[in-house]
Design a protein that fits this description.
Radius of gyration: 23 Å
Bound molecules: zinc ion
Helix content: 55-70%
Order of helices and strands: EEHHHHH
Structural class: mainly alpha
Strand order of the largest sheet: 1-2
Distance between the termini: 65 Å
Shape: extended
Number of helices: 5
Strand content: 5-15%
Number of strands: 2
Length: about 120
Amino acid sequence: MVRERRCKNCHDLIQIRPQNPNQKYCSKRECQRARKAQWQRNKLKNDKAYRDNQREAGRKWRERNPDYWRNYRKRNPDYARHNRLQQRVRNHRKRGRDNASDLIAKMDASIVEINVLSGGYG
Ligand SMILES: [Zn+2]
C-alpha cells in the first residue's frame, strides 16, 4: 500500500515508505534544510542540554572571533539603531497609531546624528 502526504515545506506530494513512515518533507534540498531547521527549533525548545550546548558553542565562536561584531558595526555604524527604529515605525503603523510620522522624523534625526558621529564611532 502506498501512502501519500504533502511535504510540509513545498506541499508537493510525497510517497511514504514503510521504512520512514513519519516522513513529512520531500527530498528537495530546500525542504531537507527546512526539516533540519524545524528539528533544531524543536530541539532548542524542548531540550535544555542541547540549548546550553548551542549557547556554549556560540560563546566559543564569539571568543574565537572577537572582532566580528565590532568590525560589523564599524562597517555599518547605523545598522542596529536604524533597524530598531524602523521596526518601531512598522509596529506603530500596524497598530494604526497616528504618531508614526513623529517616529520617522526622530529616525531621520538619529541617522544624521550617527553620520556626524561615525568618524569616531567604535
Ligand atoms: Zn518539499
